[in-house]
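sorry for the late reply, my laptop died twice this morning and i had to redo everyting from scratch. anyway the thing you sent over, i finally got around to it. pasting the sequence first so we're on the same page, its 157 residues, then the predicted structure underneath. double check i copied it right bc i was rushing
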Amino acid sequence: MADYKTNVMRILDKAKVEYNHYEYPHGKDAVDGVSVAKLLNQDPECVFKTLVTHGNGGYFVFVVPVAEELDLKKAAKAVSEKSVEMIHVKDINKVTGYIRGGCSPVGMKKQYKTVIHDSCLSIDKIIVSAGKIGYQIELAPQDLINLINAQTADIIK
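ok and here's the structure:
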C-alpha cells in the first residue's frame, strides 16, 4: 500500500468514501488495464478503465472493464448523442487534467457526464485509476456512482 495520496484519494477522503488503494510497478509508460489487473492479482472484470469521448454535446466519460471494448453506438445512445468518438491521446490532459494510463473518473478538471458499464452493479468492489500511473483505488460501485453522479448502461461490444 502506498503512503502517497493522489488527488483522487484526497477527494474520497473528503467525501468520507471508504476505499482501498493499490500501487503497481510500472515504467514511465502506461500499462494496459489487463496487465494492471494481473499486477494487482485482481479479476479483470472488477478493474475498469476510464475512456473519454466527444460528441455534439461536449465530452463524455465511459468506465468499462479493462478487457472489454467500448461500443461507440451504445455509448452515444447512453448519453443521448447521435454519435461519440474517442478523443485524441494528446487531448486527454487538456480535457481531464490526467495523462493516458492515469485517467480517473474522479477529480477531472470538470465533471463530465459519466456512464459506467452496468456489470459494475453485480460486483462488490470496482477498481479504477487513482489519477496517476501506478495507483488504483478500490471502492463500492454505488459509492463511485454517487460520488461522480454517474449512470450505468450496457456500453460494451
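Residues 31 and 101 are 7 Å apart (CA to CA).
thats about all i looked at so far, will dig more tmrw
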